[in-house]
Write a structure and sequence with these properties.
Length: 365
């Protein structure tokens, strides 16, 4: 098999190093660093791109560091344990800005990324898969299990519990401020939330994200907030406490029950929740002044885009876990312009990056 010599010039959306082959094709190389000169062998070839593995590091990048995990990069949990944290943040900013320009057609730029500086032990949730003999995480780009007895990303309480688990079946473990796997709760800025269902896996970074969303929403007591894809209502309550009235929309019935409990426990009687699809609900109230959307990685459904445009709020706060679908949806939200955008490092040592974007209705300015 032919060995190619390449220089890595950047990073792909999944954290791979990016280089060019002699024939001009883009090649994606796992565990490569910007500035590396590498010997590589192709593992998957397509017409315009290829994937490759490293056979030799000819000249290491100045951003390279010694790997501190015995199962990296075989385990698919981390993408950036081989580079400095400052280079990782730069890679994430490049990813966001490339999506805004290439997919969104926008000139807006993100210049900084909010972070807690805690790059280890931040995850409050883990899904361990079983092969009958051991528990672990999936190998990158496969369903082959890599056995794990300790993960640097996980809360110590989860790592300690892992040592006592039977490998006979897969299991999900979650921690909160009150312990491990019991009815769990977390606290953010004085608000206490039950966290059954979806909740951010990095509580410290979630506080930064929520505060930015609150700042962008900039609500007053005579305004109405609607939060689509609200989950257990954490963001609705965090931001909606500033509003005169807030309404959360969530398709999962169990999450709606938890959201209502969270409103009661925080004495926020002006915030309500309904079980409905984000694109197929009727307000029953006046049109909102601000809409928050926090969709899954796939972004807004076409129906949700139409619903937001129909309601025509003065402000949209878009929280996104995928810069590509965020950029796509911004293009679809015609009549709105990006006023501000920030990135949040919700998942250190991985290629994932969270964004919070403020869109302003140009027709109502």
């Amino acid at each position: 098999m032919t060995t190619h010599i390449v220089t890595v010039t950047g990073y792909g959306a999944c954290g791979e190093g990016v280089a060019r082959l002699e024939d001009g094709r883009v090649v994606f190389i796992r565990s490569a660093a910007r500035g590396d000169v590498l010997g590589i062998k192709l593992t998957d070839e397509r017409k315009r791109s290829a994937r490759a593995g490293i056979t030799e590091i000819i000249t290491p990048s100045p951003h390279r560091i010694e790997v501190d995990c015995p199962v990296y990069p075989e385990c698919g949990g981390c993408d950036f344990r081989h580079i400095t944290y400052s280079e990782e943040l730069e890679a994430k900013l490049l990813r966001v800005n490339d999506s805004m320009e290439r997919i969104g057609g926008l000139s807006v730029r993100v210049h900084d990324i909010l972070r807690t500086e805690k790059t280890e032990g931040y995850r409050n949730k883990a899904v361990f898969h079983s092969d009958g003999a051991s528990l672990g995480f999936y190998r990158s780009r496969s369903h082959t299990i890599v056995p794990i007895d300790h993960c640097l990303l996980l809360d110590d309480r989860i790592n300690n519990a892992l040592k006592r688990l039977s490998p006979a079946r897969s299991i999900t473990l979650r921690s909160g401020r009150n312990g491990l796997d019991q009815p769990l709760e977390e606290e953010l800025d004085g608000l206490v939330f039950a966290i059954s269902g979806f909740f951010q896996v990095n509580t410290g970074a979630a506080a930064l994200l929520f505060q930015k969303a609150r700042e962008f929403a900039s609500l007053s007591k005579n305004e109405l907030l609607v939060d689509l894809y609200c989950g257990v209502g954490a963001l609705t309550l965090f931001v909606g406490r500033d509003a005169g009235y807030a309404l959360g929309i969530e398709q999962n019935p169990a999450s709606v029950i938890t959201a209502r409990e969270n409103a009661r426990r925080n004495n926020l009687s002006h915030i309500e929740f309904i079980n409905a699809d984000a694109g197929k609900w009727e307000t029953g109230v006046r049109k909102p002044d601000c809409i928050i959307v926090d969709p899954p990685r796939s972004g807004l459904s076409p129906e949700a885009v139409r619903k937001v445009l129909e309601l025509s709020p003065g402000r949209i706060v878009y929280v996104s876990c995928d810069p590509a679908t965020l950029a796509r949806d911004i293009r679809e939200l015609r009549g709105y312009t990006v006023k501000d955008i920030c990135a949040v490092d919700m998942f250190p040592r991985t290629a994932n990056v969270e964004c919070c974007c403020l869109l302003i209705n140009t027709k109502r300015q």
